[in-house]
Amino acid sequence: MFPDRLKPGIILDNRYEIRCLIKAGGMGAVYEALDHRFNKTSCAVKEMLLKNPNPEEQQYIIKRFQREAEILHTLRHANLPVVRDYFTEYSRYYIVMDYIEGSDLSSIIKRFGAIPQEQVIEWSIQILDALDYLHSQPTPIIYRDLKPGNIMIRNSDKRAMLVDFGIARTIELGSDTIKTVVGTLVFAPEELLQGKVEPRSDIYSLGGTMHCMLSGIIPTGAFSFEPLRHLKPNVCEELEWIVMRALKMKASQRYDTAKDMKEALECISNLDFAGVSRTNKITGEKQIPLLVNEATISLDSYNEGKAVPPTVKSPELKGTIPSDPEIIDEKMTIRKKIEISEDKVQLPEKKLSTPTRKVESSGKSVKITKDKKDFTRIFVLFLVFTALILSLIIIYVSSRIYKACNLCQKGQDFYSKGAYDEAIKYYDLALKINPDYVKALNGKGMAFNSKKEYHKAIECYDKALKIAPKDMNLMYNKGFALYNQDKYDLALKCYDKILQIDTKNDKVLVRKADVLYSQGKYDEAIKCYDNVLTYKQNDLFSLYNKGNILNEQRKYKEALECYEKVLALDPDYLDTKNKKENVLKELDN
């Protein structure tokens, strides 16, 4: 009888030696193992258990497991571990991933409590970038079980890594709309519990994870996330708004995509958060916000079970630091307090004679005249006045930046709903405040593109590219607008500029192939698809389009190979079955 939990020393697939259990759950476990094929390097082996599936379900599960594991093997992202291998043994399913040495967020929160806002924003942006990558795959990948315990902070570079994705997430029984319910109840949105999973389900789970990081509280029941500032009044209001929007019960009220939420966080990533100790007015709890280059948390100590408090450099300020400073509001107001003690600056006394005060220093007498006192007073007043003017300028500029960012976000919201004229209106308002706002220019261009006003879209992209000439996203969007105008050579120039920087950009390679195909340059188009398939062997879109081009060239045998590969991966992909039947008829003739 194979044990429920693998013991150290057990070797799986004649290759992976189990070292220890990392964590376990209802559907399986994750182990640290040694890969004997590669000098006993460490790896993570995830095991999935299914209790007594019937034979029909068993075959379906095996097929789905193999297909999804192959897809996961092709993923490459800085915040995802690489999936190395997969296999079945003793009617169990295993997937092998990179071993991430570090601590999960759940352990960090339990040990240290609330995490500083700047760090929460940084890690959340990294995770959203990974989610955007997963959701944008040809066959979108939904993580389903995002929670603090599944985000590791890697010791080597303190990067947030989304781990433990794969097997449990990929099992789907029944129709295409009703999925197996997978996930942790506390962080699961309503639609996931109903078996109707979608990309915005991951956004809800990340919102819950951010709520835990900021509050330092991991709730025990579903749908129990209170407004953040009720729990932690020092949380920035913009950040609370983003988190609570992600936690909306209705998926339609959340951010439409992970990219949208990432951009919203990037808008507030430069906020000036408080850098001194503050006391929570409700709980009396002492908190020390963590600023970049001013404090560090020793994550290396997590694995050793030692609680290392945050270390904060002492601010180089004379006088006292207020124990309860005013909370910074959403307008990013910068408040500076300059205190001049009475013993440092003394108003001159009204005396007819010039007073003299002696200060003993090494036996010498120093005279401080009234003129020197007047000069000191004027100089200090000048400094105060200068600081006040600078503060007003900073407040004005900050408020303008925030207003432009907010208007641009409204433009994105209207764009995502298909209200392109309204979107353009808000982008223009943002550009009135900041004519060099690249994000607003790009959004306006995309809105014109959607309205098929391609010449106006190109004007927007050209203005933005003068400001950010190396922005690949702008170059890609301009190429697409040129392609829609049938300006194929100019579109190719845009795509080639991107490929000079990123030779493996499959999105651009596919778009370039479309342009070449439109020009009748079939062989060059096939080369683009082949480039994609060298590192994404199961890219359905590239295989399908390559087959279509070969079909037009009457290279029926090669086209048939492409169609058969597509059908092996997805039997219902577009009209591939009909294409295959037509090719077989041509071969018979």
State the main characteristics:
589 residues; Phosphorylase Kinase, domain 1; 3-stranded antiparallel sheet; single chain; 47% helix; alpha+beta; globular; 13 strands; Serine Threonine Protein Phosphatase 5, Tetratricopeptide repeat
**Overall form:** globular
Strand proportion, as a percent range, falls in 5-15%
Distance between the termini: 58 Å
Q: Say how many strands there are.
A: 13
Count of alpha and pi helical runs: 20
What spatial order of strands do you see in the largest sheet? 1-2-3-4-6-5
Domain tally: 4
Structure report:
The protein has 589 residues and is an alpha+beta fold. It has 20 helices and 13 strands. It has helices spanning 55-73, 105-112, 117-135, 167-170, 190-193, 199-215, 228-231, 237-246, 258-268, 370-416, 420-433, 438-450, 454-467, 472-484, 488-501, 506-518, 522-535, 540-552, 556-569, 576-588, and strands spanning 11-12, 16-25, 28-35, 41-48, 83-89, 92-98, 102-104, 151-154, 160-162, 278-279, 286-287, 295-296, 311-312. The strands form 4 sheets. The protein has a 6-stranded antiparallel β-sheet, covered by helices on one side. The chain has a 3-stranded antiparallel β-sheet with strand order 7-8-9. The chain has a two-stranded antiparallel sheet with strand order 10-11. Strand 8 and strand 9 form a beta hairpin. The chain is globular.
How would the blueprint of this fold be written?
Elements: E1 11-12, E2 16-25, E3 28-35, E4 41-48, H1 55-73, E5 83-89, E6 92-98, E7 102-104, H2 105-112, H3 117-135, E8 151-154, E9 160-162, H4 167-170, H5 190-193, H6 199-215, H7 228-231, H8 237-246, H9 258-268, E10 278-279, E11 286-287, E12 295-296, E13 311-312, H10 370-416, H11 420-433, H12 438-450, H13 454-467, H14 472-484, H15 488-501, H16 506-518, H17 522-535, H18 540-552, H19 556-569, H20 576-588
Antiparallel strand pairs: 1-2, 2-3, 3-4, 4-6, 5-6, 7-8, 8-9, 10-11, 12-13
